[in-house]
Specification:
Shape: globular
CATH class of the largest domain: Mainly Beta
Largest sheet: 5 strands, antiparallel
Structural class: alpha+beta
Number of strands: 11
Strand content: 15-25%
Number of domains: 2
Strand order of the largest sheet: 3-10-5-8-11
Length: about 325
């Protein structure tokens, strides 16, 4: 069986076909392992100037469905002011203080959710998204029904209102992520996870790495997932994702390892689940990436948590 036939059979195992087009779910493997919690934070018009502070591990998703406003924030020490004149989504994936300037009118239709990313700054999407993303509602297909349900729950004082609103904000966020993947080339994103997932040849390989990090991956096996030769795959991966495939795999495994260790898994169990032959091999990879052994890293996190708990509010 030649290489082309093997690739066809492999693709049939990992994708489903819709209308003749191969489909690879690029988001599920990431979001299944690194959750994002959304919580309704504010509804209704904004009066005067409203400031949203930067908090570690927290982002914001704002929905302006009616009205106009100006938003201001600082990126890399430079003040950025934008006038929002049409219904839009505004995503702040990382802690970034920003302020909205609104006329005190009841005509504005506005809702906001806080975003708590599993893993904080180590969340793979947090690391690759721009500091702020402003997207007109009209550009996101299928968004209108979700927003209709969201604002209906916001306006309807009934049992479970907040919980339903929180879940609907998650739907809106996932639809926004879909839009980002579909428009990644035009957004000028830096090389990274999102540009890799947006690449039709690399997406199957990345999704396979995300789904099955403990598999004994080699450059050849990764390249087969993409249907490319080893040299072509390595060159394309480095250009689009910004690092060699082996480095990306190590970074992904270490990031997953951090989540497992935070959750109480042992170093031995974590090493086995992530495909390392011995706990020592995992510890070496972990230390090379983070500058501390797993146990030292856990101890530092516990010490920082204790110090934070001891500080009066």
């Amino acid at each position: 069986m030649d290489e082309k036939v093997r690739f066809v059979f492999r693709m049939r195992r990992i994708v489903r076909h819709t209308g003749g087009m191969a489909f690879v779910d690029r988001l599920d493997p990431v979001l299944d392992r690194f959750r994002i919690s959304t919580r309704l934070f504010h509804t209704g018009p904004l009066c005067g100037v409203t400031t949203f502070g930067a908090q570690p591990g927290r982002g914001f998703l704002h929905v302006l469905r009616a009205g106009e406003m100006e938003v201001a924030h600082q990126v890399d020490g430079r003040l950025d002011r934008r006038r929002i004149t049409e219904p839009s989504l505004l995503l702040y994936p990382r802690p970034l203080e920003h302020a909205f300037h609104n006329a005190p009118t009841e005509e504005s239709d506005f809702a906001c959710a806080t975003l708590d990313f599993g893993g904080g700054v180590t969340h793979p999407l947090v690391r690759t998204l721009p500091p702020v993303l402003v997207v007109p509602l009209a550009e996101v297909p299928g968004l209108a029904p979700a927003l209709d349900l969201l604002f209906a729950e916001i306006d309807d004082v009934r049992c479970g209102r907040r919980l339903l609103a929180d879940r609907l904000f998650e739907v809106v966020l996932i639809q926004l992520f879909r839009w980002v993947l579909d428009h990644a080339p035009s957004l000028g994103l830096s090389a990274g996870l999102l540009t890799g997932l947006a690449d039709e040849r690399l997406a199957p390989a990345l999704s396979a790495l995300h789904r099955d990090p403990g598999r004994p991956w080699t450059l050849a096996s990764m390249a087969r997932e993409a249907g490319l030769s080893r040299s072509a795959f390595a060159a394309r991966f480095r250009e689009v994702v910004g690092q060699p495939p082996a480095d990306y795999l190590t970074a992904w495994r270490v990031t997953l390892g951090q989540e497992r260790l935070r959750g109480g898994a042992s170093v031995q169990q974590t090493a086995r689940e992530l495909g390392y032959a011995t706990p020592a091999a995992f510890s070496r990879a972990f230390t090379q990436r983070l500058g501390r052994s797993p146990r030292a890293w856990l101890a530092l996190g516990a010490a920082e948590a204790d110090a934070g708990a001891a500080v009066p509010a």
